[in-house]
Hints:
This protein is of the alpha/beta class. It is built from three helices and three strands. The chain has helices at 23-35, 49-61, 73-79; strands spanning 16-20, 40-43, 66-70. The protein is globular.
Amino acid sequence: xxxxxxxxxxxxxxxxxxxxxxxxxxVRLRLFLDKFGIPCCALHAELPANSxxxxxxxxxxxxxxxxxxxxxxxAAMAAGAYTRPLFSST
Length: 90
């Protein structure tokens, strides 16, 4: 059985960019999708510049189909992106 079918991610035929509010949510979503065997990467401001560049290159080359990008903290706060967390720890 295709592991992507329960999440219906098999419907996405192209590359997908998902935006989340903070780096922690980006990493947690990447780990969640990885459990289903979905090749994805997380991009956020806490990574060194050379790592961010390498992740972008791999996404553009097709290594990953899904990229989770976290908003910059200052930009997210100004835009009001911190309304509620993506995942609850309770």
